[in-house]
Structures are given as structure tokens and as C-alpha cells.
User: Which sequence fits this backbone?
């Protein structure tokens, strides 16, 4: 008998729809949000079927914090998207076309402190090492750790510190090295990647929003709590 294994699953695709204006709870002011259609596509043996819209994803254009609305929810039904607006146009135009009940929104050319705080919080969240996959780091750490601890094991047996013979001690050291080296490698990889990612996000944000490093550093100093990963990223940028 031939066993039958059915391979099935799905993928999620995001499609740009346009923009909408709404208050950002993090920035504490009305912002432009980029809107995406979240579509789910099921497959059987990787043959994909029709896509089905399952909701909307909104991303604040300043702090880049995202929100999701499921299809048919109150928020999704009330959502009005403008597909013609772009960043060169005034925010008020987007308010008028997508959320006129917000009325006249105050416009300033400089970001407020709340906006800067929101951006730093979001950078900190997005560059957290606990969200980074550390597969590569484990492999490298194990490759370095295994022979090092194998030699340590061998030396321990030679000076009589091991209950195993020379070969047994080396093998035990080798196995321990895979585990210890791999773990150290994975942790180091996550933290290195986190710093690189924080820098990358910060540079992209400063560029897009024409912010200086000093502006962000000043905001960070006034931020009431500690933002570990965002401040590590900023510290590294100022050392360049
Ligand atoms: Zn925001």
C-alpha cells in the first residue's frame, strides 16, 4: 500500500491599497496610515487556490506601528482608503477625503515629542533580539565550541581530572562544545543582529522623516523608561 500524505497549508500576502488618516494612539496625533489588504491563499501540494481577503493592515507613516482589522469588523467597515494621496501632499487633504469628521488637524513641520517617543518605542520593539531567528549563530558557535571543548576534555583526562579515558573525555567535550558553543553563538548572533537592525531602521527613519541623530538622542534622553535596543542602535550610530 502506498501511504497518502496530503500536503496543505496557506500563505499570507499583503497588497497596497492606499492611505487613510486616523489618530495614532502612539504618536497621539492624527497621522497618515498606509493601508494594505491582507489576503490568505490556501494550497494543496503547493498548488495555490484563489486568494481571499481576510483583513486590513494599517501602518502609521511616522512611528511605523502597525494595526490589523479583520474582515467585516466595525473598524474595517468604517475604513475609507484614498488610493491617490501620497507623501508629497498635505495631510489635511487625506483627512478630508478619508476621515472628514476629524476636521482641521494641526500641522507642524517639526515632529512633536510624542511622535519621537512613538518612533523610538517602535524601533525598540522591531529590533528586539527575542524576535530574531538565530539559526546561523547556533551553527557557527557549535563549530567553534565543539573542537575547543574536545581539547579541554582531552587535557582534563590527561591530568587525571576526568572519570572517562582520553577518547571518552574528548567525545564528551565535543558534545558539550556543540551545546555550549551553539548556545553562546545563537545569543551573540541575536544581539548582533538586533543592533544592526536597530541601526538600519533608525537610518531609514531619519532619512525618510529628515530627522537628525541629535533630535533622536535628545528625545531618548527625555524618554521616561529605558529603550535598550533603540538606545544601543543610536549609540552605535553616533560612534560612526
Ligand atoms: Zn504613529
Assistant:
Amino acid at each position: 500500500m502506498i501511504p497518502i500524505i496530503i500536503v496543505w497549508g496557506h500563505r499570507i500576502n499583503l497588497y497596497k491599497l492606499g492611505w487613510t488618516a486616523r489618530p495614532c494612539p502612539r504618536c497621539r496625533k492624527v497621522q497618515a496610515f498606509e493601508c494594505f489588504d491582507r489576503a490568505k491563499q490556501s494550497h494543496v501540494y503547493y498548488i495555490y487556490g484563489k486568494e481571499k481577503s481576510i483583513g486590513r493592515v494599517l501602518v502609521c507613516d511616522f512611528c511605523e506601528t502597525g494595526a490589523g482589522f479583520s474582515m467585516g469588523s466595525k473598524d474595517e467597515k468604517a475604513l475609507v482608503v484614498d488610493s491617490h494621496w501620497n507623501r508629497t501632499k498635505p495631510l489635511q487633504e487625506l483627512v478630508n477625503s478619508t476621515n472628514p469628521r476629524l476636521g482641521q488637524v494641526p500641522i507642524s513641520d517639526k515632529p512633536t515629542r510624542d511622535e519621537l517617543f512613538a518612533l523610538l518605542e517602535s524601533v525598540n520593539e522591531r529590533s528586539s533580539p527575542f524576535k530574531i531567528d538565530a539559526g546561523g549563530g547556533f551553527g557557527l558557535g557549535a563549530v567553534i565550541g565543539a573542537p575547543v571543548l574536545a581539547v579541554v576534555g582531552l587535557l582534563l583526562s590527561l591530568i587525571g581530572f576526568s572519570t572517562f579515558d582520553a577518547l571518552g573525555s574528548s567525545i564528551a567535550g565535543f558534545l558539550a562544545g556543540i551545546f555550549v558553543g551553539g548556545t553562546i553563538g545563537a545569543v551573540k548572533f541575536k544581539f548582533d543582529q538586533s543592533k544592526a537592525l536597530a541601526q538600519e531602521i533608525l537610518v531609514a527613519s531619519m532619512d525618510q522623516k529628515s530627522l537628525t541623530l541629535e533630535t533622536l538622542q535628545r528625545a531618548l534622553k527625555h524618554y521616561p523608561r529605558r529603550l535598550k535596543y533603540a538606545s544601543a542602535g543610536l549609540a552605535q550610530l553616533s560612534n560612526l
